[in-house]
Amino acid sequence: MDVYHAGSRAVQDRVGVREDADHVGRAVGEGIKPVAAAFLELQPLLVLGAADPATGAVWASPLTGAPGFVRATGPRQMSVTGGVRPADPLATALATEGTRVATIALDPRTRRRMRLNGRLRPTPRGFAVTAERVFSNCPRYIQRREAYEVAADRSPGETRRGTELTDAQRAFVESVDTSFIATVHEGEVEVSHKGGNPGFLRAPSPHELTWRDYPGNAMFLTLGNIALDPRAGLLFVDWSTGTVLQLTGEAHTEFGEDGERRVRFTVREVVETPAAVPLRWSAPEYSPANPAPAD
Predict the structure, then answer these.
(1) Residue 20 phi/psi, 5° resolution?
(2) What is the C-alpha to C-alpha distance for residues 72 and 166, in angstroms, rounded to an integer?
(3) What are phi and psi of 40, to 5 degrees?
(4) Which of 39, 120, 164, 269 is the most core-located residue (most Cβ within 10 A)?
(5) Rounded-to-integer distance, Cα 35 and Cα 115, Å
(6) Angle CA 292–295–60, to nearest 5
(7) Phi-psi category of 222—alpha, beta or left, where left has phi over 0 and alpha has psi -120 to 50?
(8) How confident is the model at residue 137 (pLDDT cuts 50, 70, 90)?
(9) Which fold has domain 6-281?
């Protein structure tokens, strides 16, 4: 299986980590191992990335349920009970046979994350994904949250859409410690986690976000996609109130002479839904790997 395409290879070579990437890439497989299946069944949250089949816009969306709503139902199949809200930007994609999707299950309690990409098939109770790439990432930049509770009295508010960030949305973005980004290349999708101390993300204007790309696992799947196709989607979840902020637009990477990488994201559409996620998590213990946010 070819783990990397030309975009990822170009970034790896520019940074000088091709050998490291080759080593990490050997852990990518097509099957769901028993330890991965057990991990999935414990999760109340799954993040999914895909492109809207009508517009081509790339989005990331949260799915929630009681543990067991995500489970392995075969050596290469993950099944999900339920789906996204009807107003979610990916509602059409999740109802379309053959949609390419990427998923990430992130558990703040253990600071573990698992990624599974493949093709989607709608089912009577939700959907299934035939796995094509399955792998885990290190716990770096994941904030620990010891526990969560289900806010049984919480119901989603009215979804609000726009083409730019409001002042309140910009303040929210700059306060988060966790985000997710979906990217694409020739139909294939990746969704990854980006984390840091509050302030690691900046919203200098209603139309732009920026963040430093911290050193990671050397794979450069996200930046590799961006190098060849700028479409991207961002997801932010308020771990206390359940508010969800979704953005779609274009991203590009700036490489500094000192080796620092910075991503700039241009906002094209904004979707905000208050209380969309019925989970209330405990306060974070920030990852010791988090760098101090730059001014």
Answers:
(1) -60, -40
(2) 40
(3) -60, -40
(4) 120
(5) 13
(6) 70
(7) alpha
(8) confident
(9) Pnp Oxidase; Chain A (2.30.110)
Instruction: Give mean pLDDT, residues 124-152.
Output: 95
Q: What is the DSSP letter of 109?
A: T
For CA atoms 201, 202, 203, 207, give the dihedral sign: negative
Q: Find tokens 């694409």 and name the residue.
A: 184
Cα dist. 149→113, 136, 176 in Å? 20, 25, 20
Alpha-carbon gap, residue 118 to 185, rounded angstroms? 13
| Three-state helix/strand/coil letters over 100-121 | EEEEEEEECCCCEEEEEEEEEE
Tokens coding 145: 């949250």
For position 295, what pLDDT does the model report?
A: 55
Q: For residue range 205-225, what is the model confidence (pLDDT) as tens digits?
A: 999 999 999 998 999 999 999
Closest to 130 (Cα-Cα) out of 185, 189, 79, 82: 79
The answer to whether the Cα torsion of 108, 113, 119, 121 is positive or negative is negative
Which strand (E) or helix (H) includes residue 139?
none
The CA distance from 48 to 276, in Å, is 15
Residue 132 pLDDT exceeds 70: yes
Distance CA 55, CA 269 (A): 12
Arithmetic mean of pLDDT, 2-10: 92
Neighbouring residues of 198: CB distance < 8 A, sequence distance ≥ 6 = 174, 175, 176, 177, 293
CA nearest neighbour of 276 among 248, 219, 237: 237
What lies within 8 Å, CB to CB, of 55 at 6+ separation is none
Residue 274 has pLDDT above 60, yes or no: yes
The angle that helices 6-15 and 18-25 make with each other, rounded to 10 degrees, is 130
Chain-centre distance of CA 249, in angstroms? 15
* Residue 13: CB atoms within 10 Å: 12
Tokens of 111: 């600071």
- Report the predicted TM-score, pTM, of the whole model to 2 decimal places: 0.96
Segment holding 171, helix H or strand E: helix 167-173
